Amino acid sequence: MVKIKADTYCEDIRNILNHVNEDNFELATQAIATISKYAHELTEDEQASHTEVKKSEKKPAESAETTKAVTEKAVPEKTVTEAAASEAADDLFKIISTKARHTEKKASAPVNKYKVERKLIGAKIGPQYYSESMVRKLGLHGGDMVTLTPDPSMHRYYHGKLPQVSIVDVNPVSDQNIVREKAIVDKDDDDHFVAKYQYNHEPILVDGEPSTIKLNDDDAHKNHIEVGDIIELAYYTPNEHNEARVTWKYDVLDDQPAPVEVKKPHAAYSDKTERKIKAFQPNMEYDLTNKKVLMCGYGNHRSIAQEVVDAHHAKELLMYDEKVSGKGMAGNLLTAIKHADIVIVMLNSISHHTANQAISIARDQNKLVSATNTNSPLAIEEAIDRALKREPIYMPTSHVIE
């Protein structure tokens, strides 16, 4: 029978353990344990066999004293070898047992990170769909990477509330195959709702040529649009039939508090004495084309800020106000600043803490930023001008709307 060398055997097992990973660990440890079990039994059989062979090989001519001496000499030697093998095997079993306790195979947890897949209306994030109003409130854009809480992938069938969305990476590139236009509603000769002009009265261009876009009838009915309304339309490219979905209807009344009805004497209702509100006329020469302006505060007077940025051809007005929520309002300050090019902080309508936080975040993200303590169109226009010129963030003004 072949003699087992304990040191070599243990060293070989250790080498095998070096190649064990989470996928094969359970099978490997079971195999090693089984082999080690038989190795112990083989060592015990070998010891018994070796003792019998030694006894049968004694020479007849040897004296009893010589035989006794040889036997006493051999027994301790075998005992030492057996003890060494047993000790090495015990150490090896400790290694296996320790590894088994600390490297139990566990299913790898799915990574909770999803890409925002923008649709013409709304967006899909993982298995969840978010409406257009939710997308705008959260400040989401196609290609943004977000996390969901709770993560739907951790549940086989998730039927709870919409998971909370947290943006972890902003995609600066807009959706390449989706065109969005802010346009004025009109009607064609067949009494269908169409759009011919952008909100700034410039013609809508398709492939560089003025074009008429037919609006989806169902969307027009659902959004109760009328001629003259300002809407956002969207379509995939190429658009062979010049048709578009109505993704949003802009209504400044939604962002203002309900007017208080005041009863006046009958004589006060005279057309001669009524004054018409004039549209805002720019007092400074700067162009905000392709720039997004964020107003931090002043949420109840969005229409006034909208007039200012529209007069300078801004791409979009973003709004954040900790005291105001609803349609068109960003729900997260950090997200709103990430998507803005210019940040205007309205000091008289937000808390000191929020104002400092907004300015700090804007500086960290290298945004153009300024602040004003008044809320007149001229004060807002001047604040934007200071931001563009990177002048001091705050300068006192006195243009106030009562």
UniProtKB/TrEMBL annotation:
It comes from the Bacteria. Residues 43-62 have a biased composition (Basic and acidic residues). Residues 43-71 are annotated as: Disordered. This is DUF2325 domain-containing protein. It comes from Lentilactobacillus sunkii.
